[in-house]
Amino acid sequence: MKEKNQGKSIKKRVLRALLYGILTILSLPLVLSFLLKQPLVQSLAVRKVASWVSEKTGDSLTIGLLDIDFFKGIEVRQLGLRDSLGTPMLRINRMNVSPAFFELLSGKFFIHSLLIDSVEFRLVEHKDKNNYSFINFIKKLFSGSNTSSSSSSAFKLNIKILKMNHVHFQLRSEKDTNLNAPQNTMNYSDIDVTQATIDARNFFIVNDSLGFHLINLSAHEKSGLFLQKLRSDVIISGKMFSFRNTLLVTNHSRINLDYSMRAKGWDAYSDFVDSVRMQGNFRPSELSLSDIGYFTPVMFKMKDRVKILGGRVDGPLSRLVGKKLDIKYGKETHFEGDVSMAGLPDFYSTYIVAGINKFETSVADLKTFVLPQDDPNIPVPGSIAPTEKFKLNGQFDGSYYNFFFRANIMTGSRGKMNLDMNLKADTGKFRRLAANFDAVNFPLSHFITMDSMVGNADFTAHLAILDTLGKQNTKFSVKIKHILANKYHFRNIDYQGDYRGDTLFSKLKVDDPHLILNTSGYSVLKKIPHFHFQLKLSRSDFKPLNLWEQKDFHLSGIATINFTGLNVDSLFGHIHMKNAIVGFGEDRYPVAQIDLKKSGESSGLQSVDLQSDLLDFRMKGQYHLATLGLAMGQFFNHYFPVLPKKIRSVPVSRIR
After folding, report:
1. Residue range 248-278, pLDDT digits in tens
2. Which residue from 609, 630, 629, 626 is spatially nearest to 569, judged by alpha carbons?
3. Phi–psi pair at 496, nearest 5 degrees
């Protein structure tokens, strides 16, 4: 019986002790909350924390108000952090923290929510320091000593909900101050972000690395770049910035991609252009090329909006490589290929290698595309219909002023052209352009304003332009196998031109079944141009050539041609032909000499004088020379049967 009573007594004592323990645990938060609410305790806690931080890092921490409530959390006001030189690193107007106190007591840093309002955060690198002050502060704060963190365990902090409003962020390197940086362009040594808001979940810090799921970030950079929205899964450390599942909305662009930046350490970001490797994997996005102007100023001129359907980008800004790029512009323009660029942010000196697997466009799209130059429009001949389409593949290799370009071009009408182009230039105003063309069924009407007269052609051509100190010499040659002109299919035309100063020296040879000629001469292309040619016309059958519809007219001979002007009604000059053969049908009439002169007077009267063995003719008055050919044709149609039939045929070899 006694043993039973002793057993009951032990059970009562155990239950009583357990009850006291539970009551103590339940009352502990109340006691702690009461103690921590006391101003004396809070002031002591602030001094202890500030003193510990100062001893640990050598930096200065100040807290205006610390309010700790076991149930509501921690409220901090007027928190300030300065480095050893007195430069502000962090200022917080108000911060509310809801920690898990029991986990804090066990040594774990877990926070349910962190709400921060009005914060200034600065990453400053001083001239005599080897890193940013705040990064050094983090390293010293969570290290076993002031200089080394190798002996300490990893510091870990987890925040379930993080919200920040009215954020001001600055990154400045006193070692690399670019005083000449344009105000509307990113200066990587002096980044200034204002009006930022951050909403994030599952935030964590492990030593000097952090990560979080970013629901939204918006901000303004002093260059003018406006980040309207940024959503991403973020990991940040001294060696990597990783943004996965990222949606980026800026001034005029909407980008969807996975993006990362990798560097050897925090100090590498002060040399962002060369030392930070960027990697991007694009999903369908819209990009305004003018937004790139915040990083490469010349791009501000390009207001073009392009759609990025896919592709990868890799490398630092100074050596950027794009693979499997799939880009659209306008309604008809589509590019697929690879591009590498070495030399950014200076666009004009950047060396570009582009492999064009597919490029399709229309004239309408080309006319709306803007280039970063004084004349922003692509020089598209006005004779090409806006609906005309082109396809090409090829390669571009070089810079804006020095490049090689090769392309295979196909028009909407299935015309084809192979093009090689080489441009070389330097700062001494020396420029050389060479181009080779090889075309089949190519619509020359697109590039010649006389579209009703000229059609498709098969030809090869070479163009060379040499420009030295403003003195230009242009040479070009064209060999036409076939061309449709004036509704006639011409064959075998060979032209060579040499343009120096204001004079064009020309040679033309035609070996067509109905037109055989050789001519050479020069054209002085001034305000009123002057032309001088020597012509050997071995054969010309006007009717098949659609030059004379009334009768079958033929002409051959040797001629000297001099005239001025371009417009047919203001054209004046002299044509002297000898050893001519004039033919009507099968009849041939030898003419020793033909002289044709056209002159004008200040009163507006014009004179046409024709002297020959066959016919003398003089006409004076005000008239339109364009209609004279028709009138002369009707005249000869009426009178040529009365002429004696001197010769029935003349061998072509006699005229050659």
Report:
1. 998 789 999 998 988 887 677 767 788 888 8
2. 626
3. -130, 130
Can you read off the two tokens belonging to residue 178? Answer: 């670019």
Confidence of residue 48 (pLDDT cuts 50, 70, 90): confident
Q: How far apart are CA 227 and CA 173, in angstroms?
A: 23
Contact of 496 with 505, CB cutoff 8 Å: no
- DSSP assignment of 446-493: GTSS-TTTEEEEEEEEEEEEEEETTEEEEEEEEEEEEEEETTEEEEEE
Strand partners, 548: none
Q: Which residue has the higher pLDDT, 605 or 334?
A: 334
Rounded-to-integer distance, Cα 218 and Cα 231, Å: 10
* CB atoms near residue 475 (< 10 Å): 16
- pLDDT exceeds 70 at position 638: no
Beta strand segments in 253-350, E: 254-262, 277-288, 305-315, 319-329, 333-342
- Please calculate the CA angle 251-257-260 and round it to the nearest 5 degrees: 100
Please state, rounded to an integer, the average pLDDT across all residues of the chain.
Answer: 80
Residue 26, pLDDT above cutoff 50: no
User: Under a CB-based contact definition with an 8 Å cutoff, are residues 546 and 560 in contact?
Assistant: no
Task: Identify which of 189, 172, 171 has the alpha carbon closest to the alpha carbon of residue 180.
Answer: 189
C-alpha to C-alpha distance for 243 and 211, rounded to whole angstroms: 10
Q: What is the pTM of this model?
A: 0.63
How far are the Cα atoms of 170, 341, 514, 528 from residue 276, in angstroms, in the given order? Answer: 19, 15, 69, 60
Nearest CA to 643 out of 614, 622, 602, 618 is that of 614
Tokens (6 digits) for 419: 């093009």
- The residues, any chain, with a CB within 8 Å of residue 310's CB and separated by 6 or more, are 282, 283, 284, 324, 325, 326
Q: Which two tokens stand for residue 439?
A: 């075309």
Give the distance between the most distant pair of CA atoms in the chain. 167
Strand 109-125 vs strand 156-173: parallel, antiparallel, or unpaired? parallel
CA angle, residues 418, 423, 427, in degrees to nearest 5: 170
**Model confidence band, residue 152 (pLDDT cutoffs 50, 70, 90):** very low
Copy the structure tokens of residue 267: 């100090």
Question: How far is the C-alpha of 455 from the C-alpha of 446, rounded, in Å?
Answer: 9
Q: Token match 């770049």: residue?
A: 225
The DSSP call for residue 174 is T
Mean pLDDT of 67-90: 82
8 A C-beta contact, residue 390 and residue 410: yes
Q: Left, alpha or beta for 74 (phi > 0: left; psi -120 to 50: alpha)?
A: beta
pLDDT tops 80 at residue 539? yes
Q: Which residues pair with 599 in a beta bridge?
A: 607
Give the H/E segment covering residue 241.
Answer: strand 240-249
- For residue 578, what are the CA distances in angstroms to 484, 511, 547, 557? 31, 21, 22, 6
Placement of tokens 């064209």 in the chain: 478
Tell me if 257 sits within 8 A of 288, measured CB to CB: no
d(CA 415, CA 413): 6
Placement of tokens 């000059």 in the chain: 573
Average pLDDT over residues 394-410: 90
- Quickly tell me which residue has 């050897």 as its tokens: 264
158: β partners: 110, 204
Q: Which tokens hold the place of 563? A: 């005239």
